[in-house]
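[INFO] parsing input record for TetR family transcriptional regulator
[DEBUG] input buffer:
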Amino acid sequence: METATKPHRVRMTPAAVRVLEAAERLFYDRGIHAVGVDLIAAEAGVTKKTLYDRFGSKEQIVVEYLAGRDERWRGVLDGRLDAAGDRAAARILAVFEASRAWSERYGAKGCSMVNAHAEISDPDHPAYQVIAGQKQWMLDLFTGLARETGARDPDRLGRTLMLLHEGALVAHGMGVFPDPFGAAADQAGALLEAESPAAGEGPGR
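[DEBUG] output buffer:
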């Protein structure tokens, strides 16, 4: 797979921060296409000229919105992974716990990347790189951790863990049933036990 080019980022000034904070609230609550620059500028208390001077386009605001959430998520996740210790299985389960904590605080309407992809599916859109890159990073994380467990097929296990995680994100955002992250973590734990090297030895070996 080719490495995606990193999206262009802008330097944050105080006015740019206000614009981005307003845009994040509006994009996440109402959707990207439903929110125009007039509303963002009004909510941020800046003129449209200032908005365009800082970002150049609405598309760049979307890039900053998604990239900023991704950076904060990775920071939260890094803390949980560090606290989980050195055991790969514990670190895998910590991802689900981190997502539960993140979603309860920042993600009542589900994953911002999944939500954004429903509106931005054109690979040429500058924000598409952020969306696809974040999901590829998560898959690489799960696959790397699966490999550390000594699983017989770490690529397959990594993909399955990713599916459990993404399903939990969607179920949480839609309110399908209580605590989808706990349910996904339970299934992940069962998978880890089944995929462990010891599980394939069989009795008497």
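[INFO] The chain has a mean pLDDT of 93.
[INFO] shutting down worker
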